[in-house]
Amino acid sequence: MTQTFFWTILILAGLGLVLALVLFFIAKKFKVEEDPRIDEVEKVMPGANCGGCGFAGCRAFADAAVKAPNLDNNYCPVGGNEVMKKVASILGYEVKEKAPMVAVVRCNGTCDKRPKTNDYDGLASCKVKAALYAGDTGCAYGCLGCGDCVEACQFGAISMDPATGLPVVDEEKCTACGACSKACPKHVIEIRNKGPRSMRLYVSCINKDKGPVAKKACASACIGCGICAKTCTHDAITITDNVAYIDFTKCKLCRECEAMCPTEAIHGVNFPKPLDKEGIKARIAERNRKAKEAAEAAKAAAAEAAAKEAEPVKKEENNG
Asked: Domain segments of the chain: what residues?
């Protein structure tokens, strides 16, 4: 009995040793060498692992950055330009500074402007609510108010305002990682340029219904009237699917569109002075008057030039 027990242990130990050696040599043979710079890059990353860069986490971002020929398609929104400068220094690349971004809530449907049409009595989740039906108001595009974006934010940059029923972004804490935008089933939250001195203009509505339907559901909805697009002298505004959109790369922050919007769907943020609607409207009216006069003068000049060109022809006909 003792001898059997001894040989059993001996055989198992020998088998374990052989298998360990086999695994050791296999690991050595098929070992994948990893670039040591990946560890260096990962160390300078913020470690949020938020996925805002488009990768699974900071380690995946570091691996992609090391393997990429440049950093044009790799950017960490949480660390921003300072972190990217460190990454570029490690890899010996040049990096272009990017303008700071911020999350913007494109819904203006506060409780008083977008009244409820029914009461939702289910799980407090925007994702679940959106899967069940259009929502508890007449607008099928607006914020559902359950706060999925708040839960998704790792930086405490979003909170729900009980007075309006809408999320509020703290731009000092916001890293523009995009987690809130991804969590919103209605795609109400957009990551936009923060703007010079944090000043920016945007259309706080994504309702694609036609004007009367949108206005009935929300008093501050964009009705796609196109007044803002006609007013803008910088071609920064387009109307698509009955809703306006301001291209922040073209916008000059003149606020003329904000002043002319009949439903106040366009929001100006962090401007040092309050919006002077009457002053801006007077300025636009004067500009239109001058443009009209210039057009009439040009038309008259063209008619006069045409008449002068026709005179020699008439004289020749009369002489003939």
From this structure: 37-91, 100-194, 195-294
